[in-house]
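step 3/5: co-fold with calcium ion
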Amino acid sequence: MRLLLVEDHVPLADELLADLARQGYAVDWLADGRDALYQGASEPYDLIILDLGLPGKPGLQVLTEWRAGGLSVPVLILTARGSWAERIEGLKAGADDYLSKPFHPEELQLRIQVLLRRAHGLANQPQLQAAGWLLDEGRQCVRRKGEGEEVELTSAEFRLLRYFMLHAGQILSKSHLAEHLYDGETERDSNVIEVHVNHLRRKIGREMIETRRGQGYRFSGGAV
Ligand code: CA
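step 4/5: write C-alpha cells
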C-alpha cells in the first residue's frame, strides 16, 4: 500500500517514516501544503496522513480542496493536542479519522489498518482475511483459516500479499502493483513483481494467484 505523509515537523516525520516502512508501507513524504495539494491528487495513494498545521497551505484547506475535486482516498488527520475544534473542522472537511498529538505509533498503525480495510469494503473484519487466508499485519505472517500453522513471509511478500488480499478477485496489472507497492523515489521494475509473485505462490499455493495473460494477476484461489 502506498501512503502520503504530510507533516512539517521533521523529527516526527522521520519517526513516522521509519515506523511505516517497518509495517511494509511505501511512503512519500511532503512538508508543504501546496505540494501536498498537488501530489495527493495526482499520485495513486491508498491513504493520506495529513497534519493540519502546515506551511504553504493549511491542512484543512488542502483537505477541503481534495474533497471538492473528487478525491476519495482515506485521509487521517493529525491534530494539535486537545484541539476539539480542529478535530471537528477536519471531520467536516472530509477526514475519515484523526489522531491528536502526541500519539502512540501502534495507535496510528491500527487506525491505518482499519481505514484501509474499510476503504475496501472489509470493515467487518477485525483481521484482514480473503480467500481462506488470515493475515497478521503486526507480525507479517499468514495462515489458512482454521489451521494453526503460520507461513512466514519476507517483507516484499507481505506487502504484495496484503495488497492482493485487499483486492481479492480483482485483476491487477504488474504496473499497477508496482505503483502501489513502491514509493515515488524507488525505481519500479515490474519484473521484480513477477519474482515476488512466484515466491508467494510457492508459499501459499500456485492456485491462489492466477495469471491473466496480458492483463495481470488475480488473487482468489479460484473461489471468486
Ligand atoms: Ca505542523
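step 5/5: annotate
The chain is about 40% helix and 20% strand.
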